[in-house]
Write a structure and sequence with these properties.
Layout (H helix, E strand, L loop, with lengths): L1 H18 L15 H4 L25 E4 L1 H5 L3 H9 L2 E4 L5 H4 L9 H12 L3 E2 L12 H8 L28 E5 L5 E5 L4 E5 L10 E5 L18 H18 L7 H14 L4 E5 L5 H8 L3 E5 L3
């Protein structure tokens, strides 16, 4: 009986407590938009990427992109951006061999089917990926297929592959740029008439890259040194003269240099810019001219 009395006594207290709750009017409650969102609102004035394609002039042009199948299938940001901006899509890895075939040789196209279905339902065309590639192979499974077979070739034998042939002994002008692992040597073998790459050890092909270009005047018997990140110090004294000669002759690499410099100079003064950041200012030709016009300057140059 005592318990019932306590319960009956507590009910009015609870009612009183709930009855004293204040009502807060939050209809006029506002917060400022985060700055990191507000600063990108100007992008809303642009159309989707594919809307800028002139379909009348390029009716067969398809704008495509590559995405992660997992991200796309979440049907969130990546899904929405891809569908609204592009005509065609391919998946980064989901269609590659190692993503489909496991170490037992079993094939699973489930994710690929889901990806293709989702993309086509959204109105996109799907561009397939590589069926056979030098990377991302299921090595364990493939090796099991040949473990009892006698190989007709020596897997350790070096194989020379010719990608492109050019007789450098017949090229009067050339230059080289190289950035490679320590010990690698890239040079012109005039006896063989070729560009030769010597590696002290096996390296990934992406670690040894090079290109050549013509129209760089060389004088027979002269010695030339390729510039490293400190090499500009050697060139600095004669740099402006080299620029002037190249510009006057209309030759690589400074053809049109003065015209571009004057155009930048005119635009800065026309727009009445009081502060200028000159990235790659070299010997200071442009930045000094702007300083003389009263512009405050910031300068940055890796050399």
């Amino acid at each position: 009986m005592k318990d019932y009395k306590k319960l009956i006594w507590a009910l009015p207290v609870i009612t009183a407590m709930t009855g004293c709750t204040d009502f807060i009017d939050n209809t006029d409650y506002t917060v400022d938009k985060p700055e990191n969102i507000a600063q990108y609102e100007y992008l809303n004035s642009y159309g989707t990427l594919k809307s800028y394609i002139d379909r009348g002039a390029h009716s067969g042009f398809l704008l495509g992109t590559g995405v992660s199948a997992d991200d796309y299938l979440k049907r969130t940001g990546v899904f929405l951006l891809t569908n609204s901006n592009f005509d065609q899509v391919t998946t980064g890895n989901a269609m590659k061999y190692a993503s489909i075939v496991n170490d037992k040789g079993e094939m699973d196209f489930g994710k690929v089917r889901d990806f293709v279905s989702a993309a086509t339902e959204a109105g996109l065309e799907v561009y397939g990926h590589t069926l056979c590639w030098h990377e991302q192979q299921t090595v364990k499974w493939l090796n099991s297929l040949i473990k009892d077979k006698e190989l007709e070739i020596d897997p350790n034998e070096k194989l020379e592959v010719v990608d492109y042939e050019l007789d450098y002994s017949t090229v009067p002008e050339y230059n080289l740029w190289n950035q490679h692992p320590e010990g690698t040597n890239i040079w012109v073998n005039t006896d063989e008439g070729c560009l030769q790459v010597d590696n002290p050890a096996s390296v990934g092909f992406w670690e040894v890259q090079y290109f050549t270009f013509d129209n760089v005047s060389l004088t027979k018997g002269e010695t030339y040194q390729m510039l490293d990140n400190k090499g500009f110090d050697l060139w600095a004294d004669g740099y402006d003269e080299s620029v002037g000669l190249s510009d006057e002759d209309g030759t690589y690499p400074f053809a049109g240099y003065r015209q571009i410099l004057n155009e930048i100079y005119s635009r800065v003064l026309t727009d009445k810019c009081s502060s200028v950041l000159d990235i790659g200012f070299g010997t200071g030709t442009l930045t000094n001219r702007l300083y003389d016009q009263g512009c405050s300057r910031g300068r940055e140059d890796r050399t």
